[in-house]
Every structure is written in C-alpha cells, then in structure tokens.
Specification:
This protein is of the alpha/beta class. Helices cover 41% and strands 15% of the residues. A hairpin with a 2-residue loop joins strand 3 (57-60) and strand 4. The chain starts with 14 loop residues before the first strand and ends with a helix.
Length: 439
C-alpha cells in the first residue's frame, strides 16, 4: 500500500479549486465544470470574488462557493474608494502619472488584492482550474504550494477568451501590450495544460504559443434538456406583452458595443415585435440609457429589460422567445472567434439565432444546419430583414428550424458530450502527477 501523505491517504478524494475572477453569482461555465468534476468523484470548491448582495460562503449541491475579499498592499486598486486627493494640481498630476505607471507595471493590478486573499485562504488542492488570464498567475503559485504540501497541484489554464486581442485592450500602447502578451506566454509555460472554448481559439492559442500542445477544446455546450410539450410563455407574461407580439431575445450583459442600439432599431421596423433583454447592465450609465429608451414613445411596448435568471433557468426562458439576436460588432479577433454561453443557450432552448455576419465561428455553425439567419450588425434594416426571415417563415418551416436547433444542441454540442475530453485530460494529468516521484 502506498504511504499516506500529510494531507491524507492514497484513497483520499481528489480536490479541485476553480478560480473565477468575478463574483460567480453564478458563472455558468464554472458551475458546469464544477458539477462535472463532482460527478467524477472530486471534492470541488469555487474561489471567487466577494461582492455586494452575494454570500461569502454557499453551496450548489456538493460544490462549495467561497468569495474572497481583497487584502494586502494592492487592495486600494480593487474597486476600493480612492485615497484623498492631493491638495494641489501639480501633486495630483504627479500622483496620476505614478498611479498609471504602477498599474501598467503590476498588471493586472485590480485582482492582486484578491490573489493575496487566495494565498491565505485556499487550502492545497490536486487541481487548480484557472478561468481566464486574471486567475492564471495565482493558480500557478497555488499549484506550487500545493505540491510542496503533498497534493498534485495540477494547473489548467482555461482560455475563456482572447482577452489581449479584444477591444478591451485596443487602446493600450503597443509596447505595453507586447509586455502583457510576453507575461501571459511566460505563465502559459508553467501550466500543466490549456483548454479553451472552441477549435478556432485552440488554433489561435497554438499559433500564439507554439511551444505548447494544442489546447483541449471544451465548448460552452449546455446540458441536455427537453423543452415542455407546450412552449412556455414566461417572457410575455413577465413583460406584459400581448400574445401576438414576436419576442426577439438578447441574453447576457447589457452595455455598449453589443449591438443593442441597432437591435432596438431593427425591431421597430418589424410589424409587431419586441426586443426583450434578459440580463444586467454593465454600468450604471448604461442602465440609465436603457430606461430612457424604454420611455421613448417610439419603443413603447417594443423594448423591455428583464432581470437575469439563474443559468439553470435560462433555457426555459429562451424557449419563450421566437428568435435570439447576437448582433455584436466583430471589431476584434476575440469577438470574431467568440462562442458565448448565450449562443449555446439559445440552441439548447430550440430558439433560432440571428447572428452578426462577422462572428465567424458561430456563423459556420448556424449556416451548416440552417439554425437562423445572418445579417450586417451595423445595419438595422438588414437585421430586420434577417429577423423576418426567421419569424415570418411558414409555421411548418419555423417548427423545423426550432427542431434543428434542439437536435444540434442535444446530439453534437450537449455538455455531456463536450466535457468528456476535459475529464479525460484531468485524469491523464492526475495519473502523471501521481506517478511522478516527489521533489
């Protein structure tokens, strides 16, 4: 029999920590991974960021979710109140320039206070799954500490997006951005494996980091789900809309550069339709803009915002819609290659999708099986044309399109199918780590 370690015997249950740099209230990809690991026999904890209105410690079934508050010297950059302003403009300018330099040098600075809390509060584990670049450096640190404590300390980097090739970083000076990319490459060299959300991003990662094997693809597919025999009508009931009004659904975060203005203008070009947004505003200012649009007589009864629902409930709400719209302008590589949850949630609900023409990965899927229509996201007239193409087809053709969406989700993209390569990867890594001699 193998000797017992300080952290348990050879038959101990493997432990996984999933690192998520938001409040995970909830984070659907993380929740799906956590639940699948539990089913595979793991003890699982999600380590997220504390925030208003969410518990510091709670459970989703056997998954523990703990949220950590920033600590240490970097806490002041973690959305904390700023320090008092210097008394003179000269001093304010000096402090501003110094602050800018500190932020660039210690990038990503706004999560370092959270990292400090994780170092103190997260016990050793066999697996650290790092969702996105903001969790990667601390996952590497935790993995090294776990190995010293007798755990496997495997680190998996989940490239949930090509964030450094996104519009979030398009105004960062070239030399600074190059430094960020070099830091990411250095971190990638230290992890045990990389996973990502689709084949196109896997190819992009392989080109970016040719020293690594191609990432394992873990699609954002949804668990298999059979809709009710009679389509639900939750959206019309919640929004107070008449039964004859077509529902054009937008899922997810609400903000600029998401095509919402163009979608709103497209919907009022239709005979009788409403744009219903099921999500939350990214900023207070954007929330105000939504309210102003809904108060505009042109959009009366045609523009409605509903609060977000739990990921487990999204499909039945999406099934209440006639069509889903993803009119994001593809103004970065990250957006062109994206396949967000909202896309897979719509298909899993049997709801066809109207898609921006330059969202190339999703477009290929939609066109291959005729799961919706494609349009120019910057042109409300063309968006309206695509929406009509879906909702004004014959009842028989529309029902067939919904059936194709359900079949694609269930037979090829179901979470039960797409998660298996990830689970196989984790078991291979664990077998290798267990067989390796202790350092």
């Amino acid at each position: 029999m193998a000797p017992a370690s300080a952290t348990g015997g050879p038959d101990r249950r493997p432990r996984a920590v999933l690192l998520i740099a938001n409040t995970a209230a909830p984070y659907s990809r993380g929740l799906r991974v956590a639940r699948s690991l539990v089913e595979a026999g793991w003890e699982v904890e999600i380590a997220a960021v504390a925030g208003p209105g969410v518990a510091d410690d709670e459970h989703d079934g056997e998954v523990r979710i703990r949220r950590f508050r920033p600590t240490g010297v970097f806490r002041r950059w973690s959305d904390q109140p700023p320090p008092p302003k210097p008394p003179t403009q000269v001093l304010r300018n000096l402090v501003r320039r110094a602050d800018k330099g500190v932020k660039a040098w210690f990038w990503p600075i706004h999560v370092r206070g959270w990292w400090s809390a994780l170092r103190k509060g997260v016990p050793p584990a066999d697996l650290y799954h790092a969702f996105g670049i903001l969790t990667l450096p601390v996952a590497i640190e935790l993995g090294k500490a776990a190995r010293r404590a007798g755990r496997d300390g495997i680190v998996v980097y989940d490239v949930i997006d090509a964030i450094l090739d996104s519009n979030n970083y398009q105004h960062v000076p070239g030399p600074v951005l190059a430094r960020y990319k070099a830091k990411e490459a250095g971190w990638v060299r230290q992890v045990d494996a990389v996973v990502t959300v689709n084949d196109a991003l896997a190819d992009h990662c392989k080109r970016t980091w040719p020293f690594r094997e191609r990432p394992t693809v873990l699609l954002n597919g949804q668990p298999r789900w059979d809709p009710p025999a009679v389509r639900p009508d939750l959206i019309r009931e919640a929004a107070g809309l008449p039964p004859e009004r077509a529902i054009v659904l937008f899922l997810g975060r609400l903000g600029r550069q998401r095509g919402l203005e163009e979608a709103a203008d497209a919907v009022i070009r239709l005979h009788d339709a409403a744009l219903v947004m099921l999500g939350f505003a990214v900023t207070t200012g954007w929330d105000r803009e939504l309210q102003e649009r809904e108060a505009d007589p042109r959009y009366a009864g045609r523009h409605v915002t509903l609060p977000p629902v739990h990921p487990d409930d999204v499909r039945i709400w999406a099934a209440s819609a006639d069509v889903s719209i993803i009119a994001v302008p593809a103004n970065s590589l990250n957006q062109r290659l994206s396949t967000p949850n909202k896309f897979w949630e719509s298909l899993a609900a049997g709801t066809p999708v109207v898609l921006g023409r330059d969202l190339e990965v999703m477009r290929e899927i939609v066109e291959a099986d005729r799961l919706g229509a494609i349009a120019d996201p910057a042109d409300p007239d063309d968006l309206a044309r695509a929406l009509r193409e879906v909702i004004e087809q014959s009842p028989e053709d529309y029902a067939a399109m919904r059936a194709r969406c359900l079949a694609a989700s269930r037979d090829r993209y179901a979470w039960e199918i797409v998660v298996q390569p990830y689970l196989d990867l984790v078991e291979r890594l664990r077998s290798t780590a267990t067989a390796a001699p202790a350092s």
